[in-house]
Design brief:
The protein is of the alpha+beta class. It folds into 2 domains: 4-240, Zincin-like (2-Layer Sandwich), CATH 3.30.2010.10; 250-452, Tetratricopeptide repeat domain (Serine Threonine Protein Phosphatase 5, Tetratricopeptide repeat, Alpha Horseshoe), CATH 1.25.40.10. It contains 22 helices and 7 strands. The chain has helices spanning 40-56, 87-92, 96-111, 114-125, 131-135, 139-145, 154-160, 165-191, 197-211, 219-223, 228-240, 250-276, 284-296, 300-313, 318-330, 334-347, 353-365, 372-385, 390-403, 406-419, 423-436, 442-452; strands at 4-5, 15-18, 21-28, 33-38, 65-69, 76-79, 82-86. A hairpin with a 2-residue loop joins strand 2 and strand 3. Helix 8 (165-191) runs parallel beside helix 11 (228-240) and helix 14 (300-313) packs antiparallel against helix 15. It is globular and about 70 Å long. The relative contact order is 0.09. The model is unreliable at 1-23 and 126-163 (pLDDT under 50). Bound molecules: zinc ion. Residues 105, 109, 178, 181, 224 line the site of zinc ion (ZN). Zinc ion (ZN) binds next to helix 3 and helix 8.
């Protein structure tokens, strides 16, 4: 259950909130769609939060991926080898430690193979309708109750009706898993010398909200039952740790605030940023958020001014250059954008393929044929790390076209569609590529391969 149907199936429908925040829809098993966002800065931050925890949990070799979901609700859940974290969870967490605690708890589920065991339980009970709720897709419930047609309100009905015996036993089972995940999380946090205070704070907050009547159920609460005894148990364990009072480092807190500022700017514009940084309106993160909000509302000139000030304060921050590059692209200053992205690529310690691809895009945007080769190599480098970036294939196609290689341009589109699972369009482009490429060459062969897939 809750396997992802072709993770990037509809990547062709990728829309960019802004070009650097890529978003795509992912269909979960229940048919619920979630919007995945890609952002180099936030992905790198989450990786840094998770890496020590995954190591402590013995998960590091399992290729666990963290996926960012574009949703303002607080939610986090695991599915397969992926930990999904909502942008809303990051924005609502005041400290890195709060998110690290949530990751530690989810890692507890992964390390305990809870999903697989729960699935076995469910197979036995055949109460499939509640699968979504129990496995973490609680929004299924919230979503279907608000369905105006009233046609598919199964999820809501389950919440409203008195739980059947099978449901009750499964809920008890799920509670047991929650306590196991908490215990595991405490262990990982201790091992990595971090406080469990953030995790406790988050769960405590949700437990209290649960008591409020008439509040739309938050998916996180539904997927992670929070009875008082669980919170008490967690509090007891957390306070025993010698690291309970330990605070996040200042630099990590700043990175966290920068990520929150970015999310707030996209979710709530200028007002959202102001609300979040009421107590520090002139801090670097607050100004960063303001620059993003200004740019989003068409005031790119003002955004650039703020960004240049911030770059003076944080000259090694790759993402400030990345953002400046995006703003410059919007202002049709492609040559300037190339410089900004090139600096960002150089400074980016996480070596994100997303930024490399944007450098390639900026080269193409100059329209200067002498930049075509540099564009191709930047885009290829970007695709090597992020092979499912459809927009990068489109840019690669444009880069080849700029160089006059029409066959390669068609092949890049074929490859992009192919990776996106869009086989029909992939074959159309591959067919054109075959006619224009030199027979026998590797790229011609690749086009041939795409043509014959599934035949
Ligand atoms: Zn849980």
């Amino acid at each position: 259950m809750l396997q992802i149907n072709r993770f990037y199936r509809s990547i062709f429908g990728v829309f960019a909130i802004l070009s650097y925040l890529l978003s795509t829809q992912v269909t979960m098993a229940q048919g619920r769609k979630i919007a995945i966002v890609r952002d180099a800065e936030i992905e790198s931050l989450l990786k840094d939060y998770a890496a020590p925890i995954f190591r402590a949990a013995g998960l590091q070799s399992k290729g666990i991926e963290i996926v960012l979901v574009n949703d303002n609700n607080f939610n986090a859940f695991v599915s397969g080898r992926r930990v999904f974290i909502n942008t809303g969870a990051i924005m609502q967490s005041a400290t890195p430690n709060e998110i690290i605690g949530v990751i530690a708890h989810e890692a507890g589920h992964l390390a305990g193979n809870h999903q697989e065991r729960l699935r076995a339980q469910l197979d036995a009970s055949k109460t499939l309708a509640i699968v979504g709720m129990l496995l973490g897709a609680g929004a299924l419930v919230a979503g279907s109750t608000s369905n105006s047609s009233g046609a598919s309100s199964t999820g809501g009905a389950i919440i409203a009706a008195a739980p059947s015996l099978a449901t009750r036993s499964l809920l008890n089972y799920k509670r047991g898993e929650e306590i196991n995940a908490d215990t595991a999380a405490l262990k990982y946090l201790n091992k990595t010398k971090q406080s469990a205070n953030g995790m406790l704070k988050t769960f405590d907050r949700f437990a209290q909200q649960l008591a409020l009547a008439g509040v739309r159920p938050n998916p996180y609460k539904l997927s992670h039952p929070l009875p008082r005894e669980r919170i008490n148990l967690l509090a007891e364990g957390a306070r025993k740790s010698p690291y309970f009072g330990k605070k996040d480092s200042k630099s990590l807190q700043t990175r966290h605030n920068m990520a929150r500022a970015k999310i707030a700017a996209f979710a709530g514009g200028q007002a959202g940023v102001q609300r979040l940084f009421k107590s520090a309106p002139n801090s670097v993160p607050a100004l960063y958020g303001r620059a993003i909000a200004l740019d989003n509302s068409g005031r790119s000139n003002q955004a650039i001014k703020i960004l240049n000030q911030l770059i003076k304060k944080q000259p090694k921050n790759a993402y400030l250059y990345e953002l400046r590059g995006e703003v410059q692209l919007k202002m049709r200053q492609a040559d300037q954008a190339v410089k900004s992205f090139a600096t960002a690529v150089k400074l980016d310690r996480s070596k994100s393929g997303l930024i490399k691809a944007r450098l390639g895009f900026a080269y193409v945007a100059t329209g200067n044929r002498s930049n075509a080769k540099k564009a191709v190599s930047a885009l290829r480098a970007g695709l090597q790390t992020n092979p499912n970036n459809f927009n990068a294939y489109r840019s690669l196609s444009n880069a080849h076209a700029l160089a006059g290689d029409i066959g390669e341009a068609e092949l890049a589109m074929a490859e992009g569609h192919f990776r996106a699972g869009n086989t029909r369009d992939a074959k159309i482009f591959a067919g054109r590529a075959v006619q224009k490429l030199v027979p026998g060459k590797p790229s011609w062969q690749r086009a041939k391969d795409i043509l014959t897939v599934g035949n």
